[in-house]
């Protein structure tokens, strides 16, 4: 297991750890409910340096990646970011990634454990282009801020008023003596900001955010509370709600797809599915009440399998267990009641987001 760069700081804060795809993450700091409340009512700081990264350099880097992902890359401005999926010729997912176009390279931010898989996929199609792939995980890390007081914290830490960033909008800044890139991360919580920090500056930036945010109620946020926010927001995670048989449209990833760009690997499948107007199944929200289903549990209607559960959390907002899961298109109407497993427990289909 690859340890977190700031393991010792988290240990001092009372962290419990777990492993996600070979990388260490903080599970919680002993009070998950307080962490969740901070992200909803004040400000929370999450160490996301377990995520992996690749850089692409070379004159053809933009045109090469443009042909490999579902999103527009050639038209992406320097300094801008976007969300994209990589799919096979059959339309099933390889991974998803946030892509940042920088002056000298393209940065791909991917889920833990996926760096080697993404690199192998891209290199398979890299033939004559002037483009080169580099492992960038050891070069930088992500510290994630969530909560309505995020802008106040960043204003104080930066020494200048911070204007909120929309999803994937970026801004460079100097924080604790480090050159950082601020990226809007509003998918889980409307005020979120990811701070991309050089690995050597992580400790300084973490300590500065903790110290500056003390009067604002900042709390460190673990993986379990982050997962609760994610499921409430209806955001699928690759490796949990998306796997290598998932087609992006099944997972509601319309925000990862450009319909105006040129050809890319798997485009025909996406185009056919879009033209048809529906997928046989789609990711939906599920209200479980007190039922404690596990990922993979079947969902049934009149004794027939119509889907399965992918993520389950206890939702403070809903006051019950909630889940994400795939449901056949004939049963996606909110309010539809499905049997969980062999019953008698039931799940009610709900629109997303759940929170």
From TrEMBL:
Domain Aminomethyltransferase C-terminal residue range list: 281-353
Pfam families xrefs: GCV_T (PF01571), GCV_T_C (PF08669)
Keyword field contains rRNA processing: no
Official protein name in the record: Aminomethyl transferase family protein
Keywords: Transferase, Transit peptide
Biological classification of the source: Bacteria, Pseudomonadati, Myxococcota, Myxococcia, Myxococcales
NCBIfam families, A to Z: ygfZ_signature
Listed InterPro entries: GcvT/YgfZ/DmdA, GcvT/YgfZ_C, GcvT_C, GCVT_N, TrmE/GcvT-like, YgfZ/GCV_T_CS
Organism of this sequence: Archangium minus
GO molecular function terms listed in the Swiss-Prot or TrEMBL record: transferase activity
Entry superkingdom: Bacteria
Record domain GCVT N-terminal: where: 6-261
């Amino acid at each position: 297991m690859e340890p977190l760069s700031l393991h010792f700081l988290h240990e001092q804060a009372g962290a419990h750890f777990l492993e996600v795809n070979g990388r260490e993450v903080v599970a919680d700091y002993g009070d998950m409910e307080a962490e969740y409340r901070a992200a909803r009512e004040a400000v929370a700081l999450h160490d996301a340096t377990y995520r992996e990264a690749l850089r692409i350099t070379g004159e053809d880097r933009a045109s090469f990646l443009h042909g490999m992902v579902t999103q527009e890359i050639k038209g992406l401005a320097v300094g801008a970011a976007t969300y994209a999926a990589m799919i096979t010729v059959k339309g099933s997912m390889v991974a998803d990634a946030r892509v940042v176009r920088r002056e000298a390279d393209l940065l791909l931010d991917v889920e833990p454990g996926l760096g080697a898989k993404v690199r192998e996929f891209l290199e398979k199609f890299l033939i004559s282009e002037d483009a080169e792939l580099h492992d960038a995980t050891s070069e930088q890390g992500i510290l994630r801020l969530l909560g309505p007081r995020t802008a106040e914290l960043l204003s104080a830490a930066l020494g200048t008023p911070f204007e909120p960033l929309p999803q994937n909008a970026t801004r460079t800044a100097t924080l604790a003596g480090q050159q950082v890139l601020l990226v809007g991360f509003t998918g889980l919580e409307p005020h979120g900001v990811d701070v991309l920090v050089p690995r050597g500056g992580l400790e300084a930036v973490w300590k500065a955010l903790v110290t500056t945010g003390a009067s604002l109620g900042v709390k460190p946020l673990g993986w379990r509370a982050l997962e609760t926010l994610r499921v409430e927001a209806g955001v699928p995670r690759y490796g949990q709600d998306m796997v290598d048989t998932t087609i992006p449209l099944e997972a509601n990833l319309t925000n990862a797809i450009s319909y105006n760009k040129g050809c890319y690997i798997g485009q025909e499948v996406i185009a056919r599915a879009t033209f048809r107007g529906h997928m046989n199944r789609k990711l939906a929200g599920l209200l479980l009440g007190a039922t404690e289903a596990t990922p993979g549990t079947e969902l049934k209607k009149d004794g027939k399998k119509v889907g399965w559960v992918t993520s389950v959390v206890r939702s403070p907002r809903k006051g019950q267990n909630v889940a994400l899961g795939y449901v056949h298109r004939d049963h996606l109407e909110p309010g539809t009641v499905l049997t969980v497993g062999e019953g008698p427990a039931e799940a009610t289909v709900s629109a997303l987001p759940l929170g």
